[in-house]
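Hi V.,

You were right to ask for the full record rather than a summary. Here it is.
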Amino acid sequence: MIKTNYKDFLQDTDFITWRLTNESHLEVYWQEYIQQHPALKEEFDRAIREFAHIQLNKQTLSDTEYNYLLEQIHTSAQHLQQKKRKLRILSYAAAACVLVLSAFSLLYSMNEQEEEFNLLSEDLIVGENLEEQEISLITDSQTTSFSKDVNVHIKADGSAVVQEIGEEVSTRVKTAESKMNKLVVPYGKRSQLTLSDGTRVWVNSGSVLEFPSVFTGKTREVNLVGEMYVEVAKDKQKAFIVNTSEFQAKVYGTQFNISAYRDNCSQSVVLVEGSVGIKTSAKEETRLLPNDRLQLIDNKWTKEQVDVSRYISWKEGYIVLKNTSIVDVLKQVERYYNLTFNIPESNKLDALTCTGKIYLSDDLDNVMHTVSLLSSTRYKRENKTIYIDINP
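Predicted structure:
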């Protein structure tokens, strides 16, 4: 398709997929495209700006329009397969959003004038970048800090080998023999940890994990505040136990995700594989089977069957959404990017939900573009401050 203006870019599936997913090969493709067509640079940049302002919410579509878009999803997917490109396929509703853009000439008329962003709206959400903090590995004798995400490997002798992502040189740290070591992962950072027994742990933003150098007792116990995904090394003699402020999880060999942030609304266990016994403050044990989720809601524990990918995808760098409150999405973005959002109690976003995928790229603007698209909002960044407003 020959492109002459910004609307042509907004009708290009590859352009839309690039803006939603930040795929590296598409990034290279569009950089090369503009280098080859420098006269289109201004229209290209405008397409990027306009992409963030288009109102997209399934609730705005009629059944006829939505069914049409779903048909186009299948056509688009077949087209991409024929090209044999390794694209990450967006989930159904996110793909619907892509096709809304592709077919926007049939469904919407775009405002040629950029709307003035209303910074006085009572429903305005204001977010700010927080100060960068370092990851800390705390032992009984020292505290070692790291500016980048890290992989930590506890060796048989109890020492820790720490590799910062992107760095070639590793750091060896002497860990505590008789006390618990502490890995502190602030907001905006993530880490991986291999314990002395071979158990692999992914530690999410805003988390603190306490662990021993070597498991010497009858059990293998760690303490958690925050969130982690665990692949437990099998040991029939020593159960693996995770202690949190609200519950205790006991397993022998399994894969599961634990969310135990300090706010009660983030207390849950999701089982991917194996079997887990959860003891709550009531001292009652609840057994979980694969795809079970146990969650604390209004001070009451409830169990349900879920799609586990929604709760473990963060370790792969994206968020899976299914009728998820936009407010909850912003909370996840806060932790991942070290932000804080001030959401008014009267905010209209409380009633909005979305379904799809958000790829947590290094470019925060790409993420905020996607949030805006899925929630029918507008956003604006000024230095470290982010303003979010509902589309008029």
